[in-house]
Every structure is written in structure tokens, then in C-alpha cells.
Write a structure and sequence with these properties.
33% helix, globular, ligase, single chain, 774 residues, 5 domains, ATP binding, alpha+beta, 8-stranded mixed beta sheet
Length: 774
């Protein structure tokens, strides 16, 4: 491919290889080849020399238009011309009349353009204080590919009932991108929600924010929604006032024939308003809205469109955008769209927003039982739900036309007069979904889906949390210094004699521990404080500072100010010794004299003339990673009522110092029988024979680290997820024992949960998560 063609992005003639060199880091080879085929051949330069013999058409011949590509009107037939794929071009090389994609450059980028002809229009859409749809347009330098490509915009909140005039700026945060079916490609519509500029809190009537929190809390249930939006086309009345006469009602003010033929009807004077419904359907499809159908409804001029299935928060986003598109469509059809629950008085149906809903437990085998269970839960909070289902809904839910009376709750299979309809197919197959028929046409989809998910989540989570609190599962291992067959036998007999069930056991070699950094993850907080974190980054509670002063005779603030506090790595350098030598000095310190505990995995010891944080760690790590060593683990479980976690650690295992462990505990026996057990030295506080998890939560973290346990398959893990604690928070934050805000201060998460039984541990985890909600 040595011939040259014109790159439409730059206007320059290039060879195929030159095109590849330009775009190889941006586009795939196949895309570049397609682009090359769509490029026009470059015009051949005139030469005085005789043309060489050619075996194929010259560049000049190639560029000659094909007569067959002429249409009758003399214009080229577009079909005969290869269609260029979206040009693989670098934004910086594009001319102003080409559409860029990616992040918006903002005002500074706009100022450098020769013209805005290649720019993109973005229609930001949001809800005001009264739930009314608002929008305004922005010129952008590029077509966004993802939400983060868009900028946070602002508007005058005092004009939308969301701010005062003296402090009126409200922010628009982009949440979803749709194609703009009115202006066409490459323009977009942006679904946004409103936030106060002064405190970055959700603005008045930003119902999306709390809905998103609930959806995130119960996302493991994977909620699906489908909303049937009924609406009524009305004759325009006075500007600014709500219209009162539906489209299709007689001009003389008399009512049309009773309802009956209009539902799913066709024909003049029956399917009144079809052009509006059809155009709306088409534009929603072009926009990318998840619209799944339409039909004429019971009253003249009344229609319905269905949105979904949508997952979680996108239900509200797609319905809000579908409503906005409807409002735009009616602008040119000389009618007004009403979402009023009772648009016409008398013997006429109202307009609802029937909400179809399911979660994973409903969609799997046996899910019908879950549907019934959730329906029962809905009945217990019927009034709370009705309060979220739209204004003036009482005028619609009279029990005379559709759905039962607003003060009555009932559910039934294939019963459209019930509050909740369960499809016949769901009963037949034993799985499926349920339909809440109570929401009114004017309901806020975020409020509706939020309370539906909240009630369902609480109902189903209660059982999961209860199950997670009934069993204790711990991780126990024999440390390298004590790992031999005699100790393994002793530990196993002790565990089983106390009624604990051993689920799994085995050896983990030092090479694996070192390669997979299992011990570093295990002692994550300890390791971080010893190596990566600086003393200034650590939080020492006021009570611990008082104990420090009492023990060492100097204020914590003073030694920090004087630069006398170091982590283990820096402390060794300061003293001019190795990490192992520091570890030996640290191990020689006596608790209550030379060393103090500030919290879980957080120690401070005085070594020579400086204070060292977790100076024992490097020496401790080497014990687990030394060649030829290993640990032997036991994964054990038992019913909560058989043994409290505090007894498991305090009586069965024994305290950290084996010399003070109670008679019969594992650490006491290994300590007192060390010689008979074949150990090289008597155990001490560092080498105390055996380790066991300090809480059900810590046990889960340890099993995930050492045994690659699955949180979503573990009873306690499922209890945590059901408590609304996101999986990423557990794996990326909590398993590392962070300092969390709780009860007036920063505290170690592991310390807060230490020795709690499973149910109490789950409850406290939920409280801590709520206190640290971002």
C-alpha cells in the first residue's frame, strides 16, 4: 500500500504505513484498515517524464468519479461512496469542523478554536424543588464517551426553589448520557442531579442521591425495575395553568362515549394522540432510553409507555429522561402532557405508574416464596409506601376503577384490583416478579424505587443477617516456631474436645507466605505502621497519650515535636542497626515499662533514646518467611450458643502472654510443655505458639487472605453485605484495619470489634458503616 490517500482528519496525503504510524496507539489495526479504505486517493502530480508501465490503475485513474455513481439529479449517489468510520484522529490534529470525542475542554479550549462548527451541544436535564423537569444547553469541545468526560455545571437555584437569592448557585453533577434525538448526532442529553454549591450536599428535592445510596447498599440483590408510565394528553389552556380538558373530549364541553373502546384501540376518534405517542417512542429509542413498549389507555387521549427492565438507579434516570422527551415532543403537537393521577373528574380511570420489580432471590428457583415474603413486608409498611407514591393519589385510588382503595392493602395472583399483582406465570413457574400498582403517574421514580428496594432489602437481609450471626468461624494457625506433629496433635485435640468442627486444615509453606505476602496482609495495619506510615500520620487517642505520659514521664506531643518517634524501618536507620537487631531489642522490652499499646496492632516502645512504632514487625515477618519453615492452620466453626468468642480467645486460646494464660488453654499448655512438645525454647509473648482470630470479622479477613474464602458465599460475609456494607469497602478498606470515626473519635476497626459474638459484630459493623458514610 505505497499509494497515497487523503486523511480527512488532516487533509494531508499519506501512505498506509504513515497512517498506521499516526494512529497505531489509538486504534486497532482493523479500524485503521477500514478508515484507509474510506479515504480518497490523493491526486497524482503531473510529471514531464513518460509514465511507467502500470499493472493497475494509477492514482489519478482511481480518483476519477464513477459515472454509475451519478444520480438522476446529477448528484453523486452516497451509497456508491465508501462510508468513513468515525475518523481515528488525534483531537489535537483535527480541524474545527470535525467532531472530537472524549473530555470536554471547557472555556479555555473553546477560546482557542477558530469556530464552534465542530463542537457538541449538551442538554443538561434535572429536577427542581417541585420535581419539575428543567434543562439548559452547553457548548462543549467534544462528544463525551463517559460521564467523567462531562463537567459539573451550575445554575440559579433561586429560580428553581432550591436556593436563596444571596447564595443561589446550585451544581449539576452528570449521572447519565443519552443521545440527543432532537438535535441529532453528535449532540447529547445529560441526566444530572442537583447539589448545593456551598456545602456539596444534595439540593432540595434531589431524591436521586438517597435512592443511589439504597441501591448501592443492596446491590448484591441486583434489583430490576420496569415502570408503566401512564399519561394524558390535554388541550392547552391558559399559559402557566394546568389544563383541565383531555385531548379527545368534545369541543362543546360534553364528555365522549364511556371508556371501553379506547384501551389499545385504533382508528380516528379512538386512538387519540397516536402521533405524539409514536414520535415519543421513536425519539426515546434514538436517545438510548430503555423504552420497551407503548399502548393506548382506557380514557380518550390517555396513553402509556413502558420503561425497563432497568437495573437499580438507572430506572429513575431512564424514566426521567423519557418524561423530558415527552414534554419536548408535545411542544410541537399543540397539546400538553399531564402526569396527574386523576386528570379528568367523573367515571374515568386515573393515571398510574405501575412498578414491576424483582431481585435475584425472586428470579431463581423457589423465588415465588420470596415474592410472597416481600409482599407481606410491603403490607406492614403500606402507609409509608403510599406517602412516596405521588401527590393526589387518593383521587385515583378510590377502588372504583383500578387498584384497590388507597387505605387497603392486598396482593394476589393476576389480580389487577389488588395493591400488588403477581403474574400468573410467576405462580406457575415458581419464580418471577411482582407489580406494585399503587404509584401514581406523577410519582418520583427515585422515591418509589428507593422505598421498594429499602423494604425488600430489609426484609430479605434480616434473614441473611440472622443466619450470619448464628455460627462462629475462626482461623487458627500454629506459628512456625511451634509447628511440629506433637503440637498439631495437641491443638487438634483441644479444638475438637471443646466441640469445634474443623472445616479444613493444612500446611502453608514459608515460600508461599513470602511470595503471596500473606503475612504482610495478615498483619496489614501492623506492617503499614512499621514500614510505610510515618508517626505524624498516626492517630493516638487522648487516653493513650495520658497513659504514655504516665509510663514514660514525658508528653506524647513533646516527643513528637522533638522528632524522637520513628517507625521500625526509620528507627533502625536512626540507631544504625539492622531491622532484626531492632526486633531483638524490642522483644526485650517489658509491657508497662518499655512498651505501650495504643491500639490493635499499634505499639510504641522506647529503644535507647528514641520511641519506635511496631519495632517488632520486621523480626516477626522473618520468622514466617525463613526458608524451611511453615504454619499449620485450622479453619474451625461452632454454634454461637456453644461458646462466646471471648471465651474462645480467652479460655480456649489464652492471652498474648502465654505465661499468664489460664490452665488448660492452648497457649498455657504449649508454654508449660514446650520441652516435651519438642520446641527449641519456651514460648514468650512474640512466639506464643498459636494464633487465632480476634473477632468474627477479623476471622473473615484472615480466611479471605490465607484461604481465599469468598465473602459472598460465607455466612458471616453475606451478613455483612446484607447489612449494607459494600464489598469494595470490606476488601479495600476494612480488611486493612483502618482508623474509623466512631463514638466521638478515631479508633481501630479491629479493636472496636474484638471479642464480639457474630450477631453483635454484624450490628456494630452496620453502625460503624453508617457513622463513616461518605
Amino acid at each position: 500500500m505505497s499509494d497515497k490517500r487523503v486523511d480527512p482528519a488532516t487533509g494531508e496525503a499519506v501512505t498506509y504505513n504513515e497512517l498506521v504510524t499516526t494512529y497505531k496507539k489509538t486504534y486497532k489495526r482493523r479500524e485503521i484498515e477500514e478508515y484507509w479504505e474510506a479515504c480518497k486517493p490523493a491526486r497524482a502530480k503531473k510529471s514531464k517524464a513518460a509514465p511507467a508501465k502500470e499493472s493497475k490503475p494509477s492514482a489519478k485513474a482511481k480518483s476519477k468519479p464513477d459515472p454509475k455513481a451519478k444520480a438522476k439529479d446529477g448528484k453523486k449517489d452516497e451509497k456508491a461512496k465508501p462510508k468513513a468510520k468515525a475518523a481515528p484522529t488525534k483531537p489535537e490534529t483535527k480541524t474545527d469542523d470535525k467532531v472530537r470525542t472524549g473530555k470536554d475542554g471547557g472555556a479555555s479550549a473553546l477560546a482557542k478554536l477558530r469556530s464552534f462548527s465542530g463542537c457538541v451541544l449538551a442538554e443538561y436535564v434535572w429536577l427542581d424543588a417541585d420535581g419539575v423537569t428543567r434543562s439548559k444547553t452547553m457548548t462543549m469541545t467534544a462528544r463525551p464517551l463517559k460521564v467523567t468526560d462531562l463537567k459539573v455545571w451550575n445554575y440559579d437555584g433561586s429560580s428553581t426553589g432550591q436556593a436563596d437569592g444571596h447564595n443561589s448557585e446550585v451544581l449539576l453533577k452528570p449521572r447519565a448520557i443519552f443521545n440527543d434525538p432532537f438535535r441529532g448526532y453528535p449532540n447529547v442529553m445529560v441526566l444530572a442531579d442537583a447539589w448545593n454549591a456551598w456545602d456539596d450536599q444534595p439540593a432540595k428535592n434531589n431524591t436521586r442521591a438517597p435512592c443511589a445510596e439504597i441501591m448501592d447498599m443492596y446491590r448484591s440483590l441486583d434489583p430490576w425495575f420496569g415502570i408503566e408510565q401512564e399519561y394524558t394528553l390535554m388541550k392547552p389552556g391558559k399559559v402557566g395553568l394546568k389544563p383541565t380538558v383531555p385531548l379527545g373530549f368534545n369541543a362543546d364541553g360534553s364528555e365522549p362515549a364511556p371508556q371501553g373502546p379506547y384501551y389499545t384501540g385504533a382508528g380516528f376518534n379512538v386512538a387519540i394522540g397516536r402521533p405524539v405517542a409514536d414520535e415519543h417512542y421513536k425519539l426515546c429509542m434514538e436517545a438510548g432510553v430503555k423504552i420497551s413498549g407503548i399502548n393506548a389507555e382506557v380514557m380518550p387521549g390517555q396513553w402509556e409507555f413502558q420503561i425497563g427492565p432497568c437495573r437499580g438507579i438507572e430506572m429513575g434516570d431512564h424514566l426521567t429522561m423519557a418524561r423530558y422527551i415527552m414534554l419536548r415532543v408535545t411542544e410541537k403537537h399543540d397539546c400538553v402532557c399531564s402526569f396527574e393521577p386523576k386528570p379528568a373528574k367523573g367515571d374515568w380511570n386515573g393515571a398510574g405508574c405501575h412498578t414491576n420489580f424483582s431481585v435475584t432471590p425472586m428470579r431463581v428457583a423457589g423465588g415465588y416464596d420470596t415474592i410472597i415474603k416481600v409482599c407481606e413486608a410491603f403490607g406492614k409498611v403500606a402507609k409509608e409506601h403510599i406517602a412516596e407514591y405521588g401527590e393526589d393519589n387518593d383521587k385515583r385510588l378510590t377502588g372504583k376503577h383500578e387498584t384497590c382503595d388507597i387505605n387497603t392493602f392486598k396482593y394476589g395472583v393476576a389480580n389487577r384490583g389488588a395493591s400488588i399483582r403477581i403474574p400468573r406465570e410467576a405462580e406457575k413457574s415458581g419464580r418471577g416478579y411482582m407489580e406494585d400498582r399503587r404509584p401514581g403517574a406523577n410519582c418520583d421514580p427515585y422515591r418509589v424505587t428507593k422505598i421498594i428496594m429499602k423494604t425488600t432489602g430489609e426484609c430479605l437481609s434480616a434473614e441473611t443477617i440472622e443466619a450470619g450471626g448464628k455460627t462462629h468461624t475462626a482461623f487458627v494457625f500454629i506459628k512456625p516456631h511451634a509447628n511440629n506433629e506433637k503440637v498439631q496433635t495437641l491443638v487438634k485435640e483441644k479444638l475438637t474436645s471443646e466441640g469445634l468442627t474443623i472445616k479444613s486444615e493444612g500446611t502453608i509453606k514459608s515460600t508461599v507466605i513470602d511470595k503471596k505476602k500473606l503475612i504482610d496482609t495478615h498483619y496489614g495495619a501492623i506492617a503499614a505502621k512499621a514500614v510505610t506510615m510515618k508517626p505524624k500520620d498516626l492517630t493516638v487517642q487522648e487516653k493513650s497519650q495520658e497513659e504514655f505520659e504516665k509510663q514514660f514521664g514525658v508528653k506524647w506531643s513533646k516527643v513528637m515535636e522533638d522528632g524522637l518517634v520513628f517507625n521500625a524501618m526509620d528507627g533502625a536507620k536512626k540507631l544504625g542497626i539492622t531491622a532484626d537487631e531492632l526486633g531483638k531489642k524490642y522483644d526485650a522490652l517489658k509491657k508497662g515499662e518499655g512498651i505501650i499499646k495504643f491500639g490493635g496492632g499499634f505499639y510504641c516502645g522506647k529503644v535507647d533514646d528514641i520511641y519506635v512504632i511496631n519495632g517488632f514487625y520486621m523480626n516477626m515477618r522473618s520468622k514466617f518467611t525463613a526458608p524451611g519453615t511453615s504454619i499449620y492452620y485450622y479453619e474451625v466453626e461452632w454454634p454461637v450458643e456453644k461458646m462466646p468468642w471471648a471465651d474462645f480467645r480467652g479460655k480456649l486460646l489464652g492471652p498474648t502472654d502465654p505465661a499468664s494464660a489460664p490452665e488448660g488453654s492452648l497457649r498455657q499448655q504449649i508454654y508449660s510443655k514446650w520441652s516435651d512438645l519438642g520446641l527449641k525454647a519456651q514460648p514468650d509473648t512474640g512466639d506464643n505458639g498459636v494464633h487465632a482470630s480476634a473477632s468474627p470479622f477479623e476471622a473473615l479477613a484472615e480466611r479471605c487472605n490465607w484461604l481465599r474464602a469468598s465473602i459472598s458465599k460465607d455466612a458471616f460475609g453475606k451478613g455483612l453485605l446484607a447489612s449494607g456494607i459494600p464489598l469494595p469497602m470490606l476488601t479495600k478498606e476494612w480488611f486493612n484495619d483502618p482508623q474509623v470515626d466512631f463514638e466521638g473519635g478515631k479508633k481501630s476497626l479491629f479493636d472496636l470489634l474484638e471479642d464480639l459474638d457474630a450477631a453483635a459484630c454484624l450490628k456494630k459493623c452496620k453502625e460503624i458503616a453508617a457513622a463513616n458514610k461518605k
